Each structure stands twice: as C-alpha cells, then as structure tokens.
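Researcher: Structure prediction, please.
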Amino acid sequence: MSRIGKQPVPVPDKVTVTIEGRLVSMEGPAGKMSYEHRPEIKVEHETDARRLVVTRLGETREHKAYHGLTRSLLANLCEGCEKGYEKRLEVVGVGYLAAIAGDTLQLRVGFANEVHKKIPKELNVTCPDQTHIVVRGPSKQLVGQFAAEVRAARKPEPYKGKGVRYQGEQVKIKPGKSAT
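Model: Predicted structure follows.
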C-alpha cells in the first residue's frame, strides 16, 4: 500500500471541489485549476468530511506509483487554490538588474544583450526592486518552472557568486588562482 496515497487529502473551507469523470476541478481565493487523473486511479470527494480519497484499481507497480503521485498532485492543487505558491529570486552582481515591461521580464545579467522572458498569464511576477524577483501563482509546477528558467538565464558562478539565485541559496565560492 502506498504510504502517501492512502492518506486522504483535506479540502480547506475556502476551496470548492467538483469531480466530473476523471477531471478534478478546484476553485479557491488564489485561483482555479483542474487535473485529469489516470484511468488506473479513482478519486472520491467526501463532502461531509471535506476530504478527497484516492484509491487505485490494481496492484501493479505502476498503479502504486500513480496512487501516490495523484494524491500528491491533488494536495498541491488544494494548497495552490487556497494560498498559492511563491518563489523569490535575487540578482547578484555589479550592473546586474531585473525589470518588468508589460508581460516580459527583462534581465540585464552581463551579456551583450538583455535576456527577455515572457511571463505566463497564469503567474504574477513582480520586481520590488532591481535586484529581486517574486514569482507567484496557484500552480506549483508553473511557479517552479518559470523560476528555474529565470535562474538558468545566468546561474551563479562559483568564483564571485554573480548571477541569478533563489533567495537564501548558498553558493559555494571557490578560491581563485592566487590561493595556491
């Protein structure tokens, strides 16, 4: 039995859940999202207990894997619809900066040209100042993916630590040639 899959998903009071066939839709204060689960899995909504119960229809290795995966994705949907997700990034380096123009994030990170990243319409991206970027949205996958793409524009380099990093990320600085 999947340890994660057998735990029910608690549904917060602010979130409404509708199940139509294999499509599970959730709506809350932070947004509206839906997920279509695999046919090997069955999802039931217990309205009086305010929870979702995920069960599998077989005992193969794949069924067990989909059981835990489906439960985790539904839990992420619940949390995303209730509170939303957030990633914070820092831009470190002399002359490095970030700005938002319309629906594009502009990064000046040491290249000859600026790096432009189109912001997905589901996300809310802000720059409180020129060296910080905040990515918010109801989808954990979208928030993490966009933050990773922004970070990949210029990863922190190991000698001076310049580049785009997650807030609080520790970058291990190597000693240079003069350290020998």
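Model: The chain has two domains: 9-82, 85-175.
Researcher: Thanks, that helps.
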